[in-house]
Design brief:
transferase; LicD/FKTN/FKRP_NTP_transf; alpha+beta; methyltransferase; globular; Beta Polymerase, domain 2; 536 residues
Length: 536
């Protein structure tokens, strides 16, 4: 990986020299435009606070002699108002633009903050909205540092020697503190095992040990997961744990590393200092940081992008990443923070009318969680399941605010069989009759995940003697009209005959089917609704 990264970094050249060549900078409603003959790493600040960083050529579009970088989509909703906007060369600090700018026709102060909490937001290297460390106090981050030590100790008890990794190791070695533009903490470990299957089993064993300590875990892949840590003022920060192993003379470390490596470059572990505390580090941090970031890792670059060789990407995907198919897309979709919860769907109201005696309601792929709140408000104990926990965070908070004890939420990855089987067994024990709902889920899933969905629905709706203990309700897009429905709901048309065939192959019986047009348009989109029972 380092050879690819080095080539990319050389295009930047000397950032200070490149900065001197950046001229004719303009900032307007469309974005940032500048002229530069060489690549430059630039920071954009609003009222002296860094919002995001970018490479002018890599991230921009050439327009004659100029380069134009449009506003990231994750930032656009905040760009209404007036404020002091600065564009500066990252390494030298030279200000190539520094003016008061009026954006979006607004006169109010530009405020790039979390709409509910008011916490200052920035964009990370992937332009996702985050609360970066440069806005946090020592008191705020102390719980994260405590958690780093606790997790390292817990991993050691589980037989794993963990160390600081990626940006956390980079900050410790380079500056002795967390990198200001970073937003999470990273740990890594190199297993004593050397086969992918064995290290996967070990990773899940370690996850169970951390859950037993009370931590909430979100799994990225079969060899990496995130530990949720709450900071002093309630900000939830991710502590990422990346597994690795040595095989065939190479270090394989999630998420981006496959490099020729020697065991002595990792073990015995040394130490490094971070925020005044001592933590484990690889025996030769330079070797590992070069494998992660290239030989020029000492030069700060807040807009750094990993350039993983295709061979490494394919290998790690094939071994470990089957659990995260599609995750990046939904992470982007649910990075948008809503001020409230959407209205419940017409579908859930239709289901409620058909099922007046329902005792348990489960919404698979619940999204923003509006339908779960609707059924809980009707007095039905309700559970929302979704791939991305950020999706239902606002609904979960509203349920607590309104005292809806019957509304619960839980993560579910349909591609993680062990999780699916556990949750399926839990659903089978809920009071009946049970209703399982999947609205606009099958029209976002590929065949392997749909197969798992049928399995979950069957487990949840079959009674002890093989008789139905509930019903499975499905709604999906059967016809994409010209009304834009498919785009608004981020779904793709599915042939009803194909879905019915898949359900029947899984042992289900469609006991009711109807089509619903979404509007009065001559070419309206059409939804298909199915009611399914399993009898054995």
């Amino acid at each position: 990986m380092s050879r690819v990264v080095d080539r990319a970094r050389r295009r930047v050249g000397d950032a200070g020299a490149a900065g001197a060549a950046v001229r004719d900078v303009r900032v307007d409603d469309e974005g940032i435009t500048a002229t530069a003959s060489e690549e430059a790493v630039l920071d954009l600040l609003v009222d002296e606070r860094r919002i995001f960083s970018f490479w002018l050529h890599r991230d921009g579009e050439q327009r004659g002699r100029d380069w134009h970088v449009g506003w990231p989509r994750t930032l656009q909703e905040f760009l209404v108002g007036t404020g002091r906007v600065t564009v500066a060369v990252h390494e030298s600090g030279e200000r190539v633009f520094d003016e008061t700018v009026r954006l979006g026709g607004g006169d109010q102060p530009l405020a790039i903050v979390h709409p509910r909490t008011g916490q200052p937001l920035s964009l990370d290297k992937s332009w996702r909205r985050v609360v970066t460390f440069d806005t946090r106090s020592e008191h705020n981050i102390a719980p994260l540092m405590d958690a780093v030590q606790v997790v390292i100790d817990a991993l050691r008890e589980a037989g794993i020697e963990a160390f600081l990794a990626y940006g956390t190791l980079l900050g410790a070695v380079r500056e002795g503190r967390l990198i200001g533009h970073d937003s999470d903490a990273d740990l890594g470990y190199v297993s004593e095992l050397s086969h992918p299957v064995d290290v996967i089993r070990e990773s899940f064993r370690v996850q169970r040990a951390l859950i037993d300590l009370g931590y909430r875990i979100t799994r990225y892949s079969a060899l990496a997961f995130k530990v949720d840590v709450e900071e002093g003022d309630g900000v939830v920060r991710g502590l990422d744990v990346f597994g690795g192993f040595l095989m065939d003379g190479h270090l394989h470390l999630m998420g981006e590393v496959r490099e020729p490596f020697e065991r002595s470059w990792i073990f015995p572990l040394g130490t490094t200092t971070l925020e005044g505390r001592t933590f484990p580090a690889p025996a030769d941090p330079d070797r590992l940081l070069s494998a992660m970031y290239g030989a020029q890792w000492r030069t700060p670059d807040p807009a750094f992008h990993f350039s993983t060789p295709p061979s490494t990407y394919r290998r790690l995907n094939g071994w470990f990443r089957g659990l995260r198919v599609g995750r990046a897309r939904w992470d982007r979709i649910y990075s948008r923070v809503l001020k409230g919860v959407p209205d419940p769907s017409p579908f859930v109201r239709w289901v409620a009318e058909r099922e007046p005696d329902v005792a348990s309601f489960v919404d698979v792929g619940c999204g923003r969680g509006a339908d779960v709140l609707e059924m809980a408000a009707r007095g039905v104990p309700s559970l929302g399941l979704d791939f991305q926990p950020r999706s239902y965070a606002r609904a979960e908070a509203r349920a607590q605010e309104q005292g809806l004890a019957g509304a619960r939420f839980q993560t579910l990855n349909l591609l993680e069989v062990r999780q699916l089987l556990v949750i399926g067994a839990q659903l089978a024990r809920l009071p009946g009759p049970r209703v399982v709902l999947a609205r606009h889920l099958v029209d976002t899933l590929k065949r392997p995940a749909r197969t798992r969905l049928w399995r979950l629905a069957r487990m949840a709706t079959v009674g002890p003697a093989g008789a139905p203990a509930g019903r499975f309700y499905v709604e999906f897009l059967a016809k994409a009209g010209e009304d834009g429905y498919a785009g608004r709901h981020r779904v793709r048309r599915r042939r009803a005959a194909m879905i019915v065939k898949e359900i029947e192959a899984a042992g289900g019986t469609v006991v009711h089917r109807e089509d619903v047009e979404v509007s009065q348009s001559p070419d309206a989109s059409r939804l298909c609704r199915l009611v399914v029972e399993w009898r054995q």
